[in-house]
Structures are given as C-alpha cells and as structure tokens.
Design brief:
The protein is α/β, with parallel strands linked by helices. It is built from ten helices and 15 strands. This is Delta(1)-pyrroline-2-carboxylate reductase family protein.
C-alpha cells in the first residue's frame, strides 16, 4: 500500500540541495514526457489543475486546486496531492502533499535559474511576498546559494514580520523593506511571489540584478510593471521556465514582450551557456516537469533523498 505523506514528511523527502540538482537532471533527461496540463475553471476565479508526467522509471499526476478567494482565511489557497507510480509495474509508490511539492519545486526552480543566470549571487536578496513561497525562496536561496541577508516586503505587515523572524531563527540576517522599489536598488537578487493581483515591483533593477517572478501564471495576472519587463528585454535578458510561458506569463504578455523569443531554462542548461551581461528576469509559470522531478526524488525514499 502506498504511503500517504503529510506536509512535513513530504518536505523531508525533498531537501533543497537534492531537489535543485534533481530538477537540473530532469532537464537533461530525454525520457521525460510531459503532456499539456488541464486547467479547468471551477468557482469564480478558481481552477483545478491536472498535471501528469513520466520518465523511464516514474509516473506521476498532480491534482491540485487553486482558490484565490481563500487568501486571508484559514483554508489554504492551494490544495491537492501528487500521486507517484512505478512505470514498470504500475504500482502506486507514494502520495505526496501537493501544496508542499508546489512550494518547494517552485522555489527550487528559481534557485536553479539563479545558479545558471544570476550575475551576482552574493545577495542581499529582496523577497516581495511573505507567504508560503516567500518562506520557501528564503530557505532555498540560503541553503543552495549561500545567501545570508534578506529584505522582506509584503502588503501584510504581520506576514513580513513572521518571515523576518523565521530567517533570524535560521541564523540569517533579515529586515523589513517597507518600500520594495527602494530596496531593489541594494539587492542583486529578488523574487516576487505574491497572489499577483497587481503590480508590486516597478523600479528598474541594478545592472547585476536577477529577478525571479513566480506569482503570475495566467495572462491576466501580473506582478511586474510593463516598463520593468521592457527594460529587461532591452537592456538585459529574459528567460522563462518553460515554453508554456508563451501563453501564461501575464507579466510579459501585458508588457508586449515576444515570449516565444525568450530562451527557456532547459535551453540554457542543455546548451551549457549561462553567460550574458546585464540584468536577468527569470519568469516562472510552473510545469508538471518540476513536479515530476520532486516525485522522482521523493520516490527514492528518505534515506536517498
């Protein structure tokens, strides 16, 4: 019988350094097959995602709901599971907590993007949005890239304070950033991970900046000002997580950016060419391949994760 793991047990199967490495390995694996995901509208503004994928050994399906109306309530915005199967036998291996997989693989992809693309990984790092993704990004950038100083900006003062406290409990330096745009000038690393209900970052970045934008994953959602996106296109480089961003990256689409002309993270990794000068915008919309990477790692068991 397959084990059903709770959030803590799922996180334990997905340690940050191993997860980042597994995502990179997946991008080099020719056996990976990821069909187009199903995005079915449910309640007003809410959707149900069905995201399958497999490689030569492992198959998985992520079934997850996204309900923006739950923001600010006791009910999570993201709920669901990731079921992992053995390809050879069809046996169900493990059932993972979906929101935990989503949080960890999204942040790990940002860290992989920074490892390949960021001109300056020394920090400090600005985190705009102090929810689950803000916490995940803080942890992975600290553990994998060695960032030790963070500035936290959030519309919720309580959430921002809680994330600062969490960082300090981990032995990191962290402080509140009342003005995200002002803080960006001192931060070569930044991530926007908000509900994407409106622009949260407008300032033009430093020449050595790396900005990961993960909150907006539909054409209607947005976190970055159009002028900021166009500046990145003109003066730096824009890289997307996958080709699906061509019809999902609201920040870029609303700025009139030709998303099809932007390289993907897989293109960069497979070419082995991290180079380039100027600021980098890494636009992440999500992909079942990232969940498959997490499923592959988790299926090996806690002793091998």
């Amino acid at each position: 019988m397959a084990a059903t793991l709770d959030a803590g047990q799922t996180a334990a199967r997905l340690p940050w350094p191993a997860l980042v490495d597994e995502i990179e390995a997946l991008l080099r694996d020719a056996s990976v097959r990821i069909p187009e995901r199903i995005v079915m509208p449910t309640a007003p503004g809410a959707v149900l995602f069905v995201m399958p994928g497999c490689d030569a050994r492992v198959a998985m399906t992520k079934l997850i709901s996204f309900t923006p109306a739950n923001v600010g309530t006791a009910t999570p915005t993201i709920q669901g599971d990731v079921t992992v199967f053995d390809v050879a036998s069809g046996t169900r291996r493990v059932i993972l907590d979906g929101p935990t997989v989503t949080a960890r693989r999204t942040a790990a992809v940002s860290a992989l993007g920074a490892r390949w693309l960021a001109p300056n990984t020394a920090g400090p790092m600005l985190i705009v949005g102090a929810g689950v993704q803000g916490r995940a990004h803080l942890e992975v950038f600290a553990q994998v890239l060695g960032v030790s100083r963070f500035f936290i900006a959030s519309r919720s003062a309580a959430s921002a304070r809680a994330l600062v406290d969490h960082a300090q409990a981990l032995g990191l330096q962290a402080e509140l950033a009342p003005d995200a745009d002002a803080a960006l000038a001192g931060c070569p690393l930044a991530v926007t991970c908000t509900p994407a209900s409106g622009v949260v970052l407008r300032a033009l970045p430093r020449p050595d900046a790396f900005i990961a934008a993960v909150g907006a994953f539909t054409p209607q959602m947005v976190e970055l000002a159009p002028a900021l996106c166009r500046h990145m296109a003109d003066r730096g480089r824009i890289v997307v997580d996958t080709r699906e961003a061509e019809h999902e990256a609201g920040d870029l689409l609303q700025a009139g950016i030709d998303v099809a002309a932007c390289p993907s993270l897989g293109d960069v990794v497979r070419a082995g060419q991290p180079g380039g000068r100027g600021p980098v915008l890494f636009k992440s919309c999500g992909w079942a391949g990232w969940d498959l990477a997490a499923a592959r790692l988790a299926a090996r068991g806690p002793e091998k994760a």
